């Protein structure tokens, strides 16, 4: 089930589009424009790794940064020349047109672009007369000369040149004649593509389509670069394609300044799966989810679970009505087969769940809930526990443990806990001390163990590990990788019900458990014990 619709000749507005897949440019600017996102810091090593992932995805162009503008980007291009062996992509250096009153051949910033050894240069130029006069503090005529001189110089140096027209759409609405003259000047000087930029991100799809349609009458190869300030960056990009753009720019996961750039993954997926264009090498779209997550790991900026196509929730179904229909035919509530983009369908279990959700989720986890009466019983238990504060939609491990109580032969307990206690205080130096004592039985042997940690939960974790490691050496592989606390009824103050979610990994996979209690220690203990129970059960 892929639901590929052939839109190769008809665009969103029902008009013939001039863009053809064979000459279409997929251009990534994650390393430059995406890196301007608040709190994102990319080292040279980070940028090299991300470049490798982008090349795996199969994009045609990777904008590596602005050599000469900062030492990090200059070092990246030097390292890229030695270390990268790109199979699909071309590395692009970004820069600006020469300064006013200086020849391009004598501008150090322009020379840095040549020195980067990048075969393709993307120049940014002003196309908004107000920006020319107030930001550059020069004349419209000199700005055109700056464009012509810089593009011509780089072409003479054997470089391919794209030109980004900064603030183009706003500039066009202010002074269309001047904005169009910028496009003509760049093309005459040798720019292969003139990219129309919605730098402020304030455009809407119908406006973009109208303006690009007018610019396309110049018969100059056009690209589009959209920001997401109206929430329309992807839609604006597609509107530009419908109007004739043959080059799209964006960032992985929509990274970028303010609200971000057009997310390149849904742009590509929409053009491949809805328009029927083959933009990436065969099979590469199926790597989209993996590569999105891998890049998120490098940037340390987690993508939204609701990100189209590749988000963890993109094909997640919670409502009982949806799950009931999906059991019959996934097409009824999914616009594509998730596997096409490397994702998967998930069934969520919650107080909104019906019997179909429980049956589907059980099947995902390897439990047979085909018996309607059994499924109804489990559904009732889930709803009752969710009403008390549990949340199973993200805690698959806890749900699996719950199912073991009802489905098939219940497995023997890996361990039992007789009692546990926490002591928190301070030593004579004033240093905080957290000690946990746990008495447990594992493999018919009882152990009384003490653990010390930098907090009460860490102390409990250490004590539990110490007591179990004698019976189960594999415990050493279990690592707590995330810990989330939520107060469920904050109006109760310090006696409010608390929910804790714990993510644990054994190096191969990660599982999540949930605990609920009248205080954070009780809730944490339940989630912690279940994380070890599930890990040992799975092992």
**Which strand-content bin applies to the residues?**
15-25%
Structural class: alpha/beta
The number of distinct helices, counting runs of at least 4 residues, comes to: 17
Shape descriptor reads: elongated
Average pLDDT reading = 86
What is the straight-line distance between the termini? 34 Å
The total of beta strands comes to 16
| Largest β-sheet summary | 8 strands, parallel, barrel
Helix content: 25-40%
List keywords for this structure.
single chain; about 550 residues; alpha/beta; 3-stranded antiparallel beta sheet; 16 strands; disordered N terminus
At a glance:
By secondary structure, the chain is an alpha/beta fold.
Can you put this structure into words, describing what you see?
This protein is an alpha/beta fold and 539 residues long. The chain contains 17 helices and 16 strands. α1 crosses α2, α6 packs across α7 and α15 crosses α17. The N terminus is likely disordered.
Ordered list of secondary-structure elements with their pairings:
Blueprint: E1 25-28, H1 44-57, E2 61-65, H2 71-83, E3 90-96, H3 108-115, E4 120-126, H4 129-134, H5 140-156, E5 160-166, H6 168-174, H7 176-189, E6 193-198, H8 205-215, E7 222-226, H9 233-242, E8 247-250, H10 264-274, H11 288-299, E9 316-317, H12 320-328, E10 346-347, H13 355-364, H14 372-387, H15 396-404, E11 416-426, E12 432-442, E13 445-453, H16 456-469, E14 479-487, E15 498-505, E16 510-517, H17 520-538
Parallel strand pairs: 1-2, 1-8, 2-3, 3-4, 4-5, 5-6, 6-7, 7-8, 9-10
Antiparallel strand pairs: 11-12, 12-13, 14-15, 15-16
Helix pairs in contact: 1-2, 1-11, 5-7, 6-7, 8-9, 9-10, 12-13, 13-14, 15-17, 16-17
């Amino acid at each position: 089930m892929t639901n590929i619709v052939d839109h190769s000749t008809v665009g969103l507005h029902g008009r013939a589009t001039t863009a053809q897949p064979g000459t279409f440019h997929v251009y990534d600017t994650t390393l430059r424009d995406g890196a301007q996102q608040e709190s994102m810091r990319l080292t040279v090593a980070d940028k090299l790794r991300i470049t490798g992932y982008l090349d795996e995805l199969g994009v045609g162009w990777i904008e590596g940064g602005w050599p000469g503008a900062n030492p990090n980007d200059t070092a990246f291009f030097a390292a890229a020349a030695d270390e990268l062996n790109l199979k699909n992509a071309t590395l692009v250096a970004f820069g600006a047109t020469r300064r006013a009153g200086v020849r391009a051949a004598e501008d150090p910033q322009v020379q840095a672009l040549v020195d980067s050894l990048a075969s393709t240069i993307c120049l940014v130029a002003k196309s908004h007369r107000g920006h020319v006069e107030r930001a550059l503090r020069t004349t419209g005529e000199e700005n055109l000369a700056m464009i012509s001189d810089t593009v011509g110089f780089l072409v003479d140096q054997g470089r391919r040149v794209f030109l980004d027209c900064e603030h183009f759409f706003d500039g066009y609405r202010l002074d269309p004649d001047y904005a169009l003259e910028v496009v003509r000047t760049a093309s005459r000087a040798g720019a292969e593509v003139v990219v129309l930029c919605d730098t402020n991100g304030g455009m809407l799809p119908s406006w973009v389509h109208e303006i690009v349609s007018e610019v396309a009458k110049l018969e100059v190869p056009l690209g589009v670069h959209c920001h997401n300030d109206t929430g329309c960056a992807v839609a604006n990009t597609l509107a530009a394609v419908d109007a004739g753009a043959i080059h799209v720019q964006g960032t992985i996961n929509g990274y970028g300044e303010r609200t971000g750039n057009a997310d390149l993954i849904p742009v590509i997926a929409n053009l491949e799966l809805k328009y029927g264009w083959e933009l990436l090498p065969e099979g590469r779209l199926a790597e989209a989810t993996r590569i999105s997550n891998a890049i998120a790991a490098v940037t340390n900026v987690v993508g939204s679970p609701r990100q189209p196509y590749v988000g963890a929730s993109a094909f997640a179904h919670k409502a009982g009505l949806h799950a009931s229909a999906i059991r019959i035919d996934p097409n009824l509530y999914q616009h594509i087969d998730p596997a096409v983009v490397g994702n998967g369908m998930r069934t969520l279990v919650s107080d909104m769940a019906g019997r179909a959700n429980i049956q589907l989720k059980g099947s995902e986890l390897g439990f047979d809930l085909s018996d309607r009466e059994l499924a109804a019983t489990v559904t009732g238990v889930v709803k009752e526990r969710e009403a008390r504060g549990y949340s199973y939609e993200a805690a698959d491990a806890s749900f699996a443990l719950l199912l073991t109580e009802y489905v098939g032969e219940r497995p023997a307990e890996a361990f039992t806990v007789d009692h546990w206690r926490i002591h928190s205080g301070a030593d004579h130096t004033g240093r905080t001390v957290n000690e946990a004592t746990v008495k447990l039985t594992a493999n018919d042997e009882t152990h009384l163990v003490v653990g010390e940690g930098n907090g009460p939960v860490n102390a409990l974790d250490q004590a539990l590990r110490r007591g179990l490691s004698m019976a189960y050496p594999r415990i050493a592989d279990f690592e707590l990788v995330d810990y989330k606390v939520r107060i469920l009824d904050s109006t109760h103050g310090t006696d409010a019900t608390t929910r804790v979610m714990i993510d644990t990994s054994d190096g191969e996979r990660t599982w999540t458990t949930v605990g609920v209690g009248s205080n954070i220690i009780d809730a944490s203990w339940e989630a912690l014990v279940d994380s070890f129970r599930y890990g040992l059960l799975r092992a």
